[in-house]
Every structure is written in structure tokens, then in C-alpha cells.
């Protein structure tokens, strides 16, 4: 389900294995599988003005590890997409090395590019966005299923 995805801002303590709800962050189904992700630091306007082109590199080295629940089938699809992204260029190189020429090589190259793009889109759309905001010590979890968001924040 991609429609109706939610965004939630929580403290890092909410995203520890002991405090997580047993609801998949992507699909909303019950799960006991928990995966560790790296939440990169968000880049503020001041950082961009101060560091310029080096701001993304500074953000890459700042961040925290967070944990999110993933249903096995969701994580399996992510792994398949990653395998396609890795294998498609190798197929094109193998076709070139095997001596495939002309139209066949062009077809293999375009098919490889299409496979990489399709797998990247699938992987991107099926992944939550996780960012750490050091200014107020919160983690922003985007593209989260509403059932996960509801379970993460019990009604008060």
C-alpha cells in the first residue's frame, strides 16, 4: 500500500527494539522482524551556506542508528530489487564480452538500464524515509504505514 502513507516525528528512544510496535513500517501487517537502519542527519540552511558543496558529506557522517519493524515479504522485495540493480549491468557487460554486437547489444543495454531504473523505483517506493534532526533530537520517519504510526503513538 502506497496511498495514505504517513510521516511521524519521534524521539530516538521510540525507535529502539524494546519500544517498537510489532507492526511493519511499510505494509502495516503484524511482524516480529526488526531491522537496523542508518538515519542521516538533516541538513539545515545554515550548514549549506557555511559548508556549501561539502554539506552532503558532513550530513553523511552524522546520524544515528534506528530500528524499524519490517514484514519478511517487504524486506524480501527490497533484497530482490537490490539484486536486480546489481545484476543488470553485469548482464550488459557479459553480453559485450561475449561478442554480442549491433541491435542485440543495444537491446541488452536498454533492458539493463530499464531493469536498474525499475528496481530503483521499487526499492525507493517501498522504503521508509528516515532522517535525524540533531537540532531538536528527533527522527523523522516518512512513508510509514498509518497502522505503524498509530501503534507507535498510543492515544493519550
Task: Describe the fold and architecture.
By secondary structure, this protein is α+β, with helices and mostly antiparallel strands. The protein has one domain (6-152). The protein is 46% helix and 20% strand. The strands form 2 sheets. The chain has a 3-stranded antiparallel beta sheet with strand order 1-5-4. Helix 3 packs antiparallel against helix 4. The longest helix is centred in the middle third of the chain and has 26 residues, at 72-97. The two termini are 27 Å apart. The relative contact order is 0.25. The mean pLDDT is 78.
Number of domains: 1
Number of helices: 5
Strand content: 15-25%
Overall structural class, as computed from helix and strand content, comes to: alpha+beta
The pLDDT mean sits at 78
> Cα distance, first to last residue?
27 Å
Give the % helix: 40-55%
Order of helices and strands: EEHHEHHEEH
Shape: elongated
Task: Compose a concise summary of this entry.
This protein has 156 residues and is an alpha+beta fold.
Secondary-structure blueprint:
Elements: E1 6-10, E2 34-40, H1 45-51, H2 55-61, E3 63-69, H3 72-97, H4 102-125, E4 129-133, E5 138-144, H5 146-152
Antiparallel strand pairs: 1-5, 2-3, 4-5
Helix pairs in contact: 3-4
List keywords for this structure.
single chain; 156 residues; alpha+beta; 3-stranded antiparallel sheet; two-stranded antiparallel ribbon
Amino acid at each position: 500500500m502506497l496511498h495514505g502513507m504517513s510521516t511521524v516525528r519521534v524521539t530516538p528512544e521510540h525507535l529502539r527494539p524494546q519500544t517498537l510496535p510489532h507492526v511493519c513500517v511499510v505494509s502495516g501487517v503484524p511482524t516480529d522482524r526488526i531491522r537496523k537502519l542508518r538515519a542521516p542527519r538533516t541538513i539545515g540552511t545554515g550548514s549549506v551556506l557555511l559548508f556549501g558543496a561539502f554539506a552532503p558529506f558532513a550530513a553523511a557522517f552524522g546520524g544515528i542508528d534506528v530500528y524499524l519493524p519490517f514484514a519478511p515479504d517487504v524486506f524480501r522485495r527490497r533484497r530482490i530489487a537490490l539484486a536486480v540493480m546489481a545484476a543488470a549491468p553485469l548482464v550488459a557487460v557479459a553480453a559485450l564480452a561475449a561478442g554480442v554486437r549491433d541491435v542485440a547489444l543495444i537491446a541488452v543495454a536498454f533492458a539493463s538500464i530499464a531493469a536498474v531504473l525499475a528496481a530503483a523505483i521499487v526499492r525507493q517506493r517501498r522504503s521508509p524515509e528516515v532522517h535525524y534532526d540533531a537540532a531538536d533530537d528527533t527522527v523523522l520517519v516518512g512513508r510509514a504505514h498509518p497502522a505503524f504510526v498509530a501503534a507507535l503513538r498510543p492515544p493519550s
